[in-house]
Amino acid sequence: MLIIGTASAFAWLLALNQVPAQLYALLQSASSNPLVILLIINVILLFLGTFMDMSPLIVITTPIFLPVVQQLGMDPVQFGIMLMINLGIGLVTPPVGSVLFVGCAVAKIPIEATIRTIWPFYLALFAALMAVTYFPAISMTLPRLYGG
Q1: What angle do CA 21, 55, 75 make, to 5 degrees?
Q2: d(Cα 72, Cα 68) in Å, to the nearest integer?
Q3: Which string of DSSP letters, residue by residue, matches the chain?
């Protein structure tokens, strides 16, 4: 709870200092193509997900990236799904990979052996992430049918 509280305070401070607007301007200067900006956001989230736990990252990155992706025309539900996939991949990716290490400890399997066998699954996860990011119908069909 201390980590979540600290992350919430940090996210509030970032929003107060208008970091999302500055980040959007920075990303716009890197590329005016929304597809490239989404790719950059995915890379940032994947990188952060490999070093930090999921809960603080949700609290920290949502207020930063949500306004940016909304300016690009992305639905908040689609962004939420994209964020969860990114951070889920980070939970099973070394160097921190907390879920990967717990799974290996429970199964009493060395990390090295596990990493060698799960690479194809990383490719499938990455393909699913790209599909959800760039094809809104994949992630938005059920919410639109259910939500009206």
Answers
A1: 45
A2: 7
A3: -HHHHHHHHHHHHHHHTTHHHHHHHHHHHH-S-HHHHHHHHHHHHHHHHHHS-HHHHHHHHHHHHHHHHHHTT--HHHHHHHHHHHHHHHHTSTTT-HHHHHHHHHHT--HHHHHHHHHHHHHHHHHHHHHHHH-HHHHHHHHHHHH-
Residue 1 corresponds to which tokens in the numbers above? 């709870």
Q: Which of 65, 10, 70 is nearest to 42 (CA)?
A: 65
Measured distance CA(24)–CA(86) in Å, rounded: 20
pTM: 0.85
Model confidence over 87-111: pLDDT tens digits? 999 989 888 888 888 999 999 999 8
Give the mean pLDDT of 24-35.
Answer: 88
Report, as an integer, the average pLDDT of 57-64.
87
- Read off the tokens for 93: 């990716």
The domain limits of the chain are 2-147
